[in-house]
Amino acid sequence: MTHGPVLELNSISKRFGPVTACDRVDLAVSPGEIVGLLGQNGAGKSTLMKIVLGLVPPDAGEVLVGGEAQTIRDPTHAASLGIAMVHQHFSVIDALTVWENVHLGAGGRLDPRRLRAEVAELSAAYDLVIDPDARVGDLNVSQRQRLEIIKCLRRDPALIILDEPTSVLTLAESRRLFEVLRRMVADRQRAVVLISHKLDEILHATDRVVIMRDGRVVEEKPTSAADAAGLARAMVGREVSLRTEASALGILGELTAAGADDSGAETGAHAEGPVVLQVRGARAVGADGRPLLDGLDLHLRSGEILGVAGVEGNGQVALTDLLSSLLELDDGEVTLAGEVVPTGVPGAMGRAGIAVIPEDRHASGCVLDLTVAENLILTNTAGVSRWGMLNKSRMAQLAGELIARFRIATPSPDIPLRLLSGGNQQKVVLARELSGAPKVLVASQPTRGLDVGAIEYMSEQLRAAADEGVAVLLISTELEEILDLADRVTVIFRGRLSETTPRGDIDLEQLGLMMGGHAA
Amino acid sequence: MIGNIETILEPTVRLGVLLLFAALGEYVAERAGTINISLEGMMLSGAYGAALVSSLTGSPVVGILAGMGAGLVIAYIQAQLSHRLDIDQFVVGIALTTLALGLTTFLFIEVEMSSGRLHEFRIPGLANIPIIGEAFFGQVWLTYLIVPAIFIVRWVMTRTSWGLELRAVGENPPAADVSGVPVLARRRQSIYVCGLLAGLSGAYLAVGLVGGFSQNMTAGKGFIAIAAVLFGGWRLWGAVAGALLFGFADALAVALPAVGVENVPGALLNSLPYVLAFGGLLVFAARARKPSALAVPFSRGVN
Amino acid sequence: MTAAGHSSAAVTGNGAGNSDATPPESGLVGRVEPRSVRLAYQAAFFVLFLALATVASGALVALAGGSPTAVLDALLDGSLRSPGAWGRSLIEMVPLALVGLGVVVAFKAGSYNIGQEGQFAMGALGAAVVSLLVPGPGALVMALALIAAAAAGGFWAGLAAVAEARRKVDVLISTLLLTFVAPNVILFLVSRDYLLLDTTESNNRLASQSERIAEEVRLPNLEIFGNKVHAGVLVALVVTGLVALLLARSVWGLRLRTLGLSARTARRAGVRPGVVGGGALVFSGAAAGLAGGMLLSGAAFRLRAEIANDFGWHGLLVALVARLNAAAVLPVAFFFAMVRTGGGFLTATGVSRTVTDVVQALFVVAALLPAALMFIRDRRAARRMALRSVSDTAP
Q: How far does Cα A5 stand from its chain's mean position?
């Protein structure tokens, strides 16, 4: 067994156009250790790992695997060098069985009997319970992650990279995952890189922590010598408001304390507003026969922000789709200001006054190949047209107003939306949705994939909308975001919502249990 | 009555197998994510290549291989344009089918060739079974190849890493990509397989059934083969059933007058396979689960 | 997924060493290449491949023992130079342009209707039925015939639209299948004396065809510089302008393009896929049907099963060569029409007129390739942009 580092990165740099993703990054990982790679969204940690996996070629610098310089061509090549990755968005395929997925990409002979045995063996050794013959589409997220880890372990890698592995897990599941990680490391002297932006898990699960900011490694120390506040400062590297900082950093404890202190009064005021949106007994079944919504009840008052917390895949998408006219209910109803709104009728929710910032803005929020101006007026064509023809000057005028009001950075309203950055595309969606003076604003994972500045902006806008009397439904898997913004909090689990709790009364332990499906 | 069944069964097998070779190829391509509408062009070039080369060499076997090669040429262009240069697969398919039609018609008129057809190979004993003997065991030898072909395709798709990877790139290309599967290469390869099988189908038509080439001799059979795959819900046995059913519809046009049914208008008989395919899709298409990434182009990074 | 998917402006990541001039705060993820530069490249590639297609066509002719220059001469004589030739080309252009416009509309809406050949035939059938059977003043019957043609073509495409809306049948395949049924419907009608079969002495009930439609229900002719051109040319011009304008500037056009680019966004914004997408499909069928009606009322005058004579397929190719740009449909259609009419003059050169099919197909392939080269050019830039957007999506 070698005692040198498994992986050594020397002065790696990578630029994407004007943006420097990695700037002379050095990193070494030794056998038997868990290294935490900590950083904000866009700090360059994902790009760095893509370079290690061969998905992105570096502009400069050197990658050494087991002491030898390598040019890693693709994930297969990386795997042959003993580097494997557990992906944040799963790399498993729904239509295939567990054992087929485990084999995918490994090449060589396909021997079902041997594969089933190997899956069983690994699942016993690491306490990762899974049925080798199950179809992956039938597994829940936590089982999928087990599969993902088994798939990775079967290639017996020297280095395992985990990319935000807990974003889809409950607290209890996360703890179990970290136990498995420990065993994987202790067992075969493997090395692990844990990519995360959550301080909690870095402090709990790692031996050493490396902090990245703006493409650079800014600090590196043994985890035992680190404390949350210090890591937080190093990660953000600038002064932001206390609440946003806490939110961005995910310091749960500090946050609830702060939240309860300074907004108790507001919460009381908002609870008085009239109920605008009501969903009663919503039921819907997916194409594969599994329930999407299972008797979901919801009421939302004007001027409040209701936070829907929960682990991904529990009906958040269906709830957003329902309020976007994309999903038809099998049972139950949606009423807006007392009027029943038909479900699944294109545009009906929008016409009734429900605006939506969808989680998958590229697929259903905007059209990348239309211009910025066209995207801005997409739901409001009546206001800029006459006899069915678009009035170019009215369009330009309206687009100009929205661009100014929402501070959208674009050289012209007439370029394709595709050319804007993610944050500005999201601003376009927000601007369009708010321009129709909606009664309800549904924001689903509104800050996913945005940088710190854009996150701050989005939070301000949601709060401002609520202050103007819009009823805001905030659906997010980021607990911190919900605790930061919401007046009341509810948990979505298997297509139903729990009782709501005013933010001041939240018991974190209780919330965690509910997200894992334990009744309150 | 029994004689009538025989008269209909024999062309059903003949024409069903013709569709089936092509449908097998299309099945492979579609499972990997391509609706390959150049299938018609592949069949037509396969037919021409086979007829020409077997006339030049006097060897039907060499002709059949040439037919497969001609199918492969179309497949190569389709694969490179749609899964390397990222041009819309339908647009490429339409262009290639047009090119194949134009080129084979032109060459057929400009280059003379002799005709010649494979002989029936009656399987001793079995061919004498009443009713089904002639239909199943009295065909040209190429017909019998369909049986191993089906099982080979089945084995490859379910029991090899390559087949597993083909199915994976048809379902979820980004996931396959990060798992280390070369997505575009697999998609191109699936089209090559499709080209070989469609070329074989065309060769079977030209050398095995007709004994020569004629202008636009496939006459939309490639599109029927595509319909068979859709009709079969993207499952192998479904595609087999679809191809045989449409083959049966095709056979009726040949056989009905022969068994004395004469007052059915030819126009109706000619359109029967297409009407049946359309009807079949009306019934089955909504229930079928198609490969999730069917006709969705893949490029790394955009996900 | 549209054919024009890659024609939209692209971004170059790091060209000419001045990317530093674009700070990230501009909101752009890269540098926009000047439109003129892109157009110049595209034009250059287009000319290059046009030349290659021409050379390949010439080589083919030489291979067949003909003289490429003689063939070119014959094509030009037949399509432009001989008396009345460009008039014939214009007349031939009309159906091609109308079919092509329909294709543009359907494809832009994400509806892959490729059954124009059948819709065209059904349109001719509709026009023939009205022209032959409806009594009344000639002009009125003619107008009715054209309306019937559009309706029949629209109906034929509508079958596919309904099958898609109700039973999720792929439009691509259903429109194709229906294409093969259409000529059989006509064959049935024109081979029965109690239906449309020509029972006049001259035919002697031998050929499966209808009678010629009466002079007064035909499209009126115009005479321009000694070329006879029927009124359909004007219709084609007007319709082209209208469709181009509506696609770019109307609410309907915007909604249609939205649907084609992002079905979910469209639905959210209130676009009914069955109405707008199905409508685009029916519109494209009606356009093909109208084209068929124009052919019957303006040039063919009698119905046969083979009336479509590849107009549907060639119209589809016109739209593809025009890269789904409505304004470009007319010139491309005229080029295809020239090849079609010129083909008739090839007999004297000893080369089969089917060479024109190959030439057309070669030009179609040639028209696809500039996009491929642009794609190669853009790929590095696009990758950078894509990876950049991934790196800000994945934390």
A: 32
Q: Where are the alpha helices (DSSP H) in chain B?
A: 2-31, 39-57, 60-83, 89-110, 132-137, 141-144, 146-159, 161-171, 173-178, 183-203, 221-231, 236-258, 266-284
Q: How many CB pairs under 8 A join A and B?
A: 64
Burial class (CB in 10 A: 0-12, 13-18, 19+), A134: middle
Residues facing C40 on adjacent strands: none
**Nearest-neighbour CA in chain B from A254: distance (Å):** 36
- Which of A16, A415, A448 comes nearest C13 by C-beta? A16
Q: Is any Cβ of chain C less than 8 angstroms from the Cβ of A433? A: no
| Alpha-carbon distance A423 to nearest alpha carbon in chain C (angstroms) | 8
- Does A451 lie at the interface with C, CB-CB under 8 angstroms? yes
CA distances from A459 to A305, A375, A434, A481, B70 (A): 11, 22, 14, 9, 61
Residues 123-162 of chain A with CB under 8 A from chain C are none
Contact list, A110 vs chain B (CB under 8 Å)? 159-161, 163-164
Question: Taking CA atoms, what residue in B is nearest to A79?
Answer: B180
B204-226 confidence digits (pLDDT tens): 999 999 989 999 999 889 999 99
Euclidean distance between CA atoms B233 and B238, whole angstroms: 6
Closest Cβ opposite residue C163 in set B87, B268, B282: B282
Place of tokens 């949350």: A228
3-state SS, residue A336: strand
Chain B residues near residue C390 by CB distance under 8 angstroms = 301, 303
Distance from CA of B286 to the nearest CA of C (A): 5
Copy the structure tokens of residue C77.
């004589």
Identify the bridge partners of residue A442 per DSSP, sorted by sequence position.
Answer: A356, A473
Instruction: Sort out which chain A residues have CB atoms less than 8 A from C38's CB and list them.
Output: none
Distance CA B225, CA B23 (A): 5
Minimal CA separation from C263 to chain A, in Å: 8
Token pair of C42 as six digits: 């595209």
Alpha-carbon distance C6 to nearest alpha carbon in chain A (angstroms): 10
Window from A105-109, C94-98, C108-112, C175-179 with minimum mean pLDDT: A105-109
**Residue in chain C nearest B86 by alpha carbon:** C372
Element containing residue A19 per DSSP (H, E): strand A19-29
ipTM score of the complex? 0.86
Return all residues near B93 (Cβ < 8 A) that are at least 6 apart: B35, B36, B37, B38, B39, B41, B78, B82
Residues in chain C with CB shorter than 8 Å from the CB of A195 are 395
Phi, psi (degrees; rounded to nearest 5) at A314: -105, 15
B159: nearest CB among A79, A95, A110: A110
Question: What is the residue-level pLDDT of chain A in tens, covering all 520 positions?
Answer: 446 889 999 999 887 655 677 889 999 999 999 999 988 766 788 788 888 988 788 888 899 998 889 888 888 888 889 998 887 666 889 899 999 999 998 888 889 999 999 999 988 888 888 999 999 888 877 788 889 889 988 888 999 999 888 776 777 778 888 888 888 888 888 999 998 877 778 888 899 999 988 888 998 999 999 887 788 778 766 544 444 444 444 444 444 444 444 444 444 445 568 899 999 999 998 876 778 899 999 999 999 999 998 877 788 999 999 999 999 999 999 999 989 999 989 989 999 999 999 987 777 889 988 999 999 999 888 888 888 899 889 999 999 999 999 988 888 888 888 777 777 888 899 999 999 889 999 999 888 767 667 778 888 999 999 999 999 999 988 777 888 889 999 999 888 898 888 887 877 777 777 776 665 4
Q: Which residues pair with A339 in a beta bridge?
A: A336
Who among C20, C385, C392 is closest to A449 (CB)?
C392
